[in-house]
Design brief:
Elements (H helix, E strand, L loop, with lengths): L1 H56 L5 H13 L6 E8 L6 E11 L1 H8 L7 E11 L4
Helix pairs in contact: 1-2
Length: about 140
C-alpha cells in the first residue's frame, strides 16, 4: 500500500512540472517563430532592394521606374510581411540608382501579450537600401 501512494505522488510531481514548463516552452517557441518571420522579411527586403537597384542600373531609360518594378516583382513572391518600395536616381551613365524597401512583419507574441494587458499592436519593422551606379554604353 505504501508503494502505491509513492507512485501516485511521483505522477503528481511530473504533472506539476509539466504544468510549469509547458507554457515556458510554448512562449519560447512562439518567440523563435516570430524572430524567424522578422528575419525572413528583413532578408526579403534586402534582396528586393538589391535586385531592383541592379535592374535599374542596367536600364537604358527610366532607371528608377525599372528599379521599383523589379523590386516589386521580387517581393510579389514573398508571403510574409508588408513592403513599401521607393526608387530614385539614374538618368545618365555613372548616376546612382537607389532602391529603398521598408518592411513590416507581424508580431504574434506581442498580440498575445496585449490580451494579458501588455502593450498594443506591435510589429517588427525595418528598412533596406541598395545603391548601384547606372551603366552606360
Amino acid at each position: 500500500m505504501h508503494n502505491r501512494g509513492k507512485r501516485w505522488f511521483e505522477r503528481g510531481n511530473a504533472m506539476a512540472e509539466t504544468a510549469v514548463a509547458l507554457p515556458v516552452v510554448l512562449v519560447l517557441t512562439f518567440a523563435l517563430v516570430n524572430f524567424a518571420i522578422a528575419g525572413y522579411a528583413s532578408v526579403a527586403a534586402a534582396n528586393a532592394a538589391n535586385y531592383g537597384a541592379r535592374a535599374g542600373s542596367v536600364a537604358q531609360q527610366g532607371a528608377a521606374g525599372v528599379a521599383a518594378s523589379a523590386a516589386h516583382a521580387a517581393l510579389s513572391k514573398t508571403m510574409v510581411g508588408e513592403y513599401q518600395v521607393a526608387a530614385g536616381g539614374g538618368g545618365r551613365p555613372g548616376a546612382q540608382v537607389t532602391v529603398s524597401v521598408h518592411w513590416e512583419a507581424p508580431n504574434f507574441l506581442g498580440s498575445m501579450l496585449s490580451l494579458l494587458g501588455g502593450g498594443g499592436e506591435v510589429k517588427f519593422e525595418g528598412s533596406a537600401r541598395s545603391t548601384f551606379r547606372q551603366e552606360g554604353w
